[in-house]
DNA sequence: AATGGGTGTGTAATCGATTACACAAATGGA
DNA sequence: TCCATTTGTGTAATCGATTACACACCCATT
C-alpha cells in the first residue's frame, strides 16, 4: 500500500504539502502541486479514509437504518437518499433491523462507532430507550416516517391521507366500511391512519363495528387472512367496502375477494395506501395514495446535509401526498 | 468522546488491558476484566472503528455496488447479503451507479479507500477497464449476475432458463413467437437470454423474423413500447406469443395488449423472467422464472466471507432457477 | 533449590492521515 | 530602504486503537 509518505518522498516534498495538494487548502506552489499530482497519478495512490477520519472525526458516511431493505418503500427511500448524498461525496452505510425493534438502538450505537456523520432512521415504533439512544449519539439525526419528539422528522401525512381516502369512499355512497390495519406499536401506520379513518366515519355518523376491523403485519398474506376473517365473521351483514392501510395488504385482500367470487368494486370496494408499482397493474387497478417515498428520502438527506453544515434545522416536515383514484372503488 | 485511555484510567489498568478485555484475547485476570467491563458499561464507551481499522487494516465493512437500488431484484439481493454478513458483524456500504457504467470503476476505488474488506458487484456489463480495476483493488471480490473472468462469479443460468421457457412456449403449440429483450452490452440479460431463446427456436426449425424482435431498457414503459412496435409492424402476420426477458417489461407489454383488447393467453401468450412479486398478482398471472435473488445474495456473501478467511475459492457458481407456470401462456 | 512454563500487566511503537506552529523567501507599499 | 504581508514549505504532535516485547509473579516438577 502506498501511503502519503511514499508520495511525499517520490515528489520530493513533505507529507504536509501532499496533504495540502490533495485537500486543496493552504499555499502550494504550482511546481510542487504538479509534481505531487504526477506521482499520485502514476502510483494510483488512494488515501486511507480510516486515518483521515481518525484525525478529522468525519467519515463521509451516513448511516441508514431500515426496518426491512427488500421492501418497495424502503428501497425507494434509499434511492432518494443516495441520489442526494452521493452527489456530495457521501456514502451510505446500510443497516437492516429485519423488523426487530431492539436492533434500532443497537445499530445507532454501531453507526456511532463507525463515525458516521449522520443517521437517517426509518422507525417503525417509538419508545423511550430509542429516544435516549438518539440523544446519546449526539449526531445529526433524521427520522423518516415517524415523528420522534426532539428529532428532526419527516413524516407522511398519515392522518389526512386516511381522512381523504375515507371521505372519498363515503362519497361513493358506501356506509358499511371495513378496516384492515396494523398493530398500534406503529404510531404512523397503526395509529394515525386508523384515527383518520375512524374520525371520518364518526363525523359521518357511522359507527364502525368491532368485527369489521382486522389487523395484519404488512405482508400480502396477512391482508388475505384479514379479509377472510372479516368476510367470515360478517356473513349476514357484510361491509361493501374495505379501507386497507397498505397496498400490499390490500393486494392480499383483493386476492381473497377474487377467489371468493366478489366483484371489485361492485360487490366490494377496496383501497390501499402507498402507491406500490403493483397497484397500478393489478386488476382492477387499486385506488391508493402516493406518498412520494423517493422525494421523502431525498428531503431527509438534504436536511441531514444541512445539519452537517451546522444549520440547526430541528423541525418537523410533513410530506405531501396524492390520492390516486383508480378502478377498485 | 471517551476513549480507551479514559477507560484505562478509570479502571486503573493500562489501555492494553482494556483492549484485551474488549477483544477477548490474551490473559486478563478476572478482577481486571470486571473493573473494565464495569467502567465500559457506565460510560457507554464505544471504540473508534477508524482507529481500529487504521491499525488492523480491516474495517468490518463490505462494499456493495448496485446498478440501481430501487429495484426489486437489487433489494432482494441486498437483503440476502445483509442477512449473512450482519450475522458476522459486518456492515454494508452501499453504492449505486444509477446505471452509469463508468461509476462501477469509480466506486471500486472509492470502496478501496474506505478499506472495505471485500466487494460484491452486481455488474450490468463487462469491459477491460472494469476487470483491471478489480485486479488492482486486490480485494476479495464477488461478481453477481454476470460472469467476470478471473473473478469469483455467481451467475444465474440465463441460457438454460431461456431455453426452458422457450421450450415450454413451443410445447403449448406456438410457432410464431416474438421477442422483447435488452441491449447486448448486458452479457447476461441481453446476450445469454436471447441466445437461449434463439437457439431453441432454431432447433425447433423456426426462424425468428427480424421485426418480431424489439428492445427495451428494463422499464415497464419500454416493455409497453416494444410490444406496441411489434404489434404495429406485424399487422397481417402477428405472433401468437411473446418471450420477454424481464417481468417488468412483460408487465408493460401486457398493459399494451390489454389496452388493445388482446386476450391473454388466448390471443397472445406472454412470459417474463425474474419472478417479481407483481407477476403473481397481475391478471392473468404471469408465467415467469424465479432466480432466487435473495439466495444468490446470501451465497455471494458467504463466498465473500470465505475469501476473507483466506480460503481461496475462486470459482463460478451457477444459481439454479425454477419455472413458474401460471396463466399468461 | 533451581528451572521452566503458564498468567497477568504495562511500555511504547505503530497505523496514515491532518494541522498548529515556525520559519524563510518573495512581494509590495510607504 | 524598511517593514508588513503574502506565499510556500517543513517539523512534529495528534487522533484512538492494536500488539510485539519485556517483565514479574506463581506454581509444579526435577
From TrEMBL, chains A, B:
Keywords: DNA-binding, Transcription, Transcription regulation
InterPro entries membership: HTH_LacI, LacI/GalR-like_sensor, Lambda_DNA-bd_dom_sf, Peripla_BP_I
Domain of life, source organism: Bacteria
Chain segments annotated as transmembrane: none
Keyword Transcription attached: yes
Claim: Disulfide bond is one of the keywords in the record: no
Name of this chain's protein: LacI family transcriptional regulator
